[in-house]
Design brief:
Elements lengths: L3 E4 L9 H12 L4 E3 L6 E5 L3 H11 L8 E3 L6 H4 E2 L3 H10 L4 E7 L5 H4 L4 E5 L4 H10 L3 E2 L14 H8 L5 E4 L10 E4 L6 E4 L5 H7 L6 H4 L20 E6 L2 H17 L4 E5 L13 E4 L6 H17 L4 E5 L6 H12 L4 E3 L1
Parallel strand pairs: 1-9, 2-9, 4-7, 6-10, 12-15, 12-16, 13-14, 13-15
Antiparallel strand pairs: 2-3, 3-8, 4-8, 5-6, 6-7, 10-11
Helix pairs in contact: 1-6, 11-12
Bound molecules: threonylcarbamoyladenylate (TXA) and magnesium ion.
The site of magnesium ion has 3 residues, from loops.
Length: about 350
């Protein structure tokens, strides 16, 4: 299959409505379109077309029981996909939509099980990215879209990443520039008596608690592992290289990484260090490829770059990536969730 790549100016997506129309035509015809969102790129299909949704699973190599998020263009789209919507959902939508926030609700009967991974619930998101919203409107149907990457590998935060993984396997890629948040949405389950976070993401637990007393218990429960989202049991976000996450005080993290790096190099491995601006200089002349993820005091910048950096280390042929850990607060929780999954749980305490 030939994959068409079309550029859309993120500052003015209306300038190239032709490209958006062509991607929408692909969706309407049951094809697959990669599109930008503010979190990561999505791989979209008509959420109401089971055959089209099945293609998403086939090209990604995604297990069939891992449901897709259904993307809507406005609040008017919510009723079409979800049923028994609780008042809490409307209050959260008011605060966090459009944006990096996904709500799991009871599904409307017409939403196919192919889209929901066989579940009676549906995950719904109203993205902030204007190109994404124009695409959904133009397609005239909600769009089912997981992150646009081969299952298990780092998510795509640029059109190039989508092309690296899926060129030749999908109909069109809308290139709308880099994803500004760089991490997936926060997934919250609103179907149980007590709402919970299934996946930390762009909206932090602190923001949820501030917005809604219903989430107050989250702080005390924050460290519990609760794998309720089907996707959580699978390997995720992993580059080809092995990843080791080193946690602790920043100075001690750097000491430990220098020691680990020397040991890996001695055993013949090509190493990469995911440093921070604060520690970058400490790793010079250690034989590793060193890249800064940004200042550890600006977690938005770190979040925006981690998938790109993991992919870059792979391109340079690193065998091992030594990544600095971050404090488990705010966006740090989401960044650590992704890094620890990329590392397959390989965490070293400095
Ligand atoms: O930011 C995002 O959420 C991106 C963009 C494209 O919107 N999408 C994304 O999709 O990250 P994906 O498929 O990579 O992750 C969706 C997560 C998975 O862990 C999946 O298991 C969970 O949401 N999920 C989807 N539907 C669910 C449901 N009905 N119940 C529980 N978890 C659900
Ligand atoms: Mg994903």
């Amino acid at each position: 299959m030939t994959t068409v790549i079309e550029r859309v100016d993120p500052a003015d997506p209306q300038k190239n409505t032709g490209a958006i129309k062509r991607a929408a035509a692909v969706i309407k015809a049951g094809g697959l379109a990669a599109f930008p969102t503010e979190t990561v790129y999505g791989l979209g299909a008509d959420a109401f077309n089971p055959a089209a949704v099945k293609k998403i699973f086939a090209v990604k190599g995604r297990p069939a029981d891992n449901p897709c998020i259904v993307h809507i263009a406005g609040m008017d789209g919510l009723d079409g996909v979800a049923a028994d919507i609780p008042p809490l959902a409307y209050r959260l939508a008011e605060k966090f939509w459009p944006g990096p926030f996904t709500m799991v609700l009871n599904k409307k009967s017409g939403v196919p099980y192919e889209t929901t991974g066989g579940l009676e619930t549906v995950a719904v998101r109203l993205p902030a990215n204007e190109t994404a919203r124009l695409l959904i409107r133009e397609a005239g149907t909600p769009i089912a879209a997981p992150s646009c990457n081969i299952s298990g590998s780092p998510s795509a935060t640029r059109a190039e990443h989508a092309a690296d993984d899926l060129f030749g396997k999908i109909d069109i890629i809308l290139d709308g520039g880099p994803s500004v948040i760089g991490l997936e949405s926060t997934v919250a389950d609103l179907t149980a008596a007590v709402p919970s976070i299934l996946r930390p993401g762009g909206i932090t637990a602190e923001m949820l608690i501030e917005a809604e007393p219903a989430f107050e218990w989250l702080m005390s429960a924050a460290s519990d592992e609760k794998p309720k989202s089907p996707g959580i049991k699978y390997t995720h976000y992993s580059p080809k290289a092995d990843v080791v996450v080193v946690t602790g005080a920043p100075e001690e993290i750097a000491d430990a990484i220098i020691r680990l790096n020397a040991a890996y190099i001695k055993s013949g491995k090509k190493t990469g260090v995911m440093a921070t601006d604060e520690t970058f200089a400490r790793y010079s002349n250690q034989g590793a490829r060193v890249v800064s993820a940004g200042s550890r005091y600006k977690m938005e910048n770190v979040a925006a770059g981690i998938y790109r950096l993991l992919r870059e280390f792979d391109r340079c042929g690193a065998d091992v990536i030594l990544a600095e850990g971050y404090p488990d607060i705010g966006l740090g929780v989401s960044v650590m969730d992704r890094l620890i999954k990329a590392a397959g749980g390989n965490v070293v305490r400095a």
